[in-house]
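Section 3.1: Structural characterization of target chains.
Under the original work plan, the team committed to producing a structural model for every single-chain target entering the pipeline before any wet-lab resources were allocated. The record below documents one such target. The sequence was received from the expression subgroup and is listed exactly as submitted; it comprises 456 residues.
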Amino acid sequence: MINAATEQLAFIKKFLNKGHSRSANARKNILASFLIKGCNIAIGLVLVPLTIHYVNPTQYGIWLTLSSIIGWLGFFDIGLGNGLRNKFAEALAKDDHARAKVYVSTTYAILTIIIFITLLVFFCINPFLNWARILNAPPEMTRELSMLAIIVFSSFALRFVLQLITTILTADQKPARASLFNLFGSIFSLAVIFILTKTTSGNLLYLGLGLAFTPVLVFTASSIWFYSGEYKKYAPSIRHVDFHLSRDLMGLGVKFFVIQIAAIVLYETANIIISQLFGPVEVTPYNIAYKYFGIISMVFSIVMTPFWSAFTEAWHKKDMAWIQNAMKKLNLLSIVSILIILLMLAVSSFAFRIWVGKDVTVPISISVVLAAYFIIYVRNMIYIYFLNGIGKVKLQLYSSVAGMIINIPLAIFLGRKLGVAGVILSSVILNGINTIWTAIQYKKIVNNKATGLWAE
């Protein structure tokens, strides 16, 4: 039995290490990310009921809503995170460690300035904000919610800057290490809430302090650990800040920022449109089906994450053979994913009955359109990650803006004609078009035939 286990371990080790070091590194990160993600999900399942038990469902809802509102401020980095991700990976590919350090220092400086100004504005206007009205909470909670907003906003501001260490690790093709921070944060959050349930009665401010500042402590400790050890040569310093390089970072970063905003409009408006056209009750079957088929996109995202920066490195080292080989394997993996989606579609009615019972019925039309949506999503992700990794995003930028403008009126038109499935069909059509041009652009680039907009 021991020999069998040793043989299996040796086989796994051989599989993880075979081939190009870049490919081996990606496989290790994918496996580790799956394990970490699984642990995170398990902790999350325990954390939700424990938190609700500590306060109450209403207070927990207030916490979630406030966190979501402030979470939108994450876009204030104007794409600098993704800009740093590409520029740092590019500098490493060229063995230009001094430039990598300057990029890191400059990004920290710019984000610190942005967050300082944002905090200043928030502290000035917060006394005039009626958070009880904003969150639809009882009026007597106004003072408590104002304090809670300060706690959540301040912790978010600190995390906003400190979490750049995850960008550095991801750019260095170590996304599994970066995802460990979320796992540590979840573990410590669980411990904090457990202690609170044993030592205090339900208190929204204690909950806010515990859940908001736990990630800050994790990111602070992680930054100190990495910047004083393995990443000491990239540690941010005022002496290495060069605002002249902000154009490099923000030029690419702003493009990513606009693409992110467009993606939100393209992907996150379906709930609102369905609710407005057909009533809130119709949002439920859509969301159930979306979460069901969305399992594939979540898994595929874990697989794709290491490849963004791997494509960056390979591109700047002119390793086109590795890029083409990696894309061939990812395309085969996408075909497997598509077959799984089709199988999920075939058993969807049975799966929904087992999962949510007979209280909610998901029309087959919604399942069919969402299956098509995720098939296209998986195919498109391969080419998008390649183009993002090498920084050729101008065509994607224009396409995203056009999609953002077209999606809502098209979704409303198709929704009125075809029902809920019509709303989703709008995204299917627009993403289908994206899949065509991204594949064409990839082929032009790898065959050295890209000119004009195709090369930008």
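Residues 269-455 form one domain.
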